[in-house]
């Protein structure tokens, strides 16, 4: 009877720890999606600052970036704690590891959004360049990729994650085309600062699309276990 009671108690404790672990993971998932919503908003504001020349949008981003950074540090810390203290199974370790990489991608997108808002303010004094319409379309594509990757995360949709590379190729093509135009522009009148800023801008957008692709692929890895 004593052995049976001990086994029952051990089984209860194990199930209790597992339930506690699952609750922690669910909370992490919710926090990652909240962080993703902040990053989406930051990207939207940077787009608005750049193409609508909206100073108030640019000024709103630093506060958002601080919130994004807080989520990043908190989520990473909780993942490390769960991995070291809870001794999760292999599949759960894979999940936590993917979470840590995923929030790093989100944090980088947030940083690029802030960088773009700063570029937008520096471009305010100059007339819009003829390439701005194409850059705006590139920004739309990158934003759509971020939204798609976050939907894939919310739904744990591995197929959407795998399609992200196809979407990324569209942004890559736009980057190479725009870079070629800017690099080969002739008869430049006045200062070259706007061209330098736009070259940096399209590079930021291309990197944001890369990080969105990473998020989608990490979702696929969470679901399937395959890279």
TrEMBL record:
Coiled coil: none annotated. Residues 32-119, 135-219 form the PhoU domain. Transmembrane segments: none annotated. It holds the Pfam family PhoU. It is found in: Cytoplasm. The keyword DNA-binding does not apply. InterPro entries: PhoU, PhoU-like_sf, PhoU_dom. Homodimer. Belongs to the PhoU family. PANTHER family: PHOSPHATE-SPECIFIC TRANSPORT SYSTEM ACCESSORY PROTEIN PHOU. Plays a role in the regulation of phosphate uptake. This is Phosphate-specific transport system accessory protein PhoU. The lineage of its organism: Bacteria, Bacillati, Cyanobacteriota, Cyanophyceae, Oscillatoriophycideae.
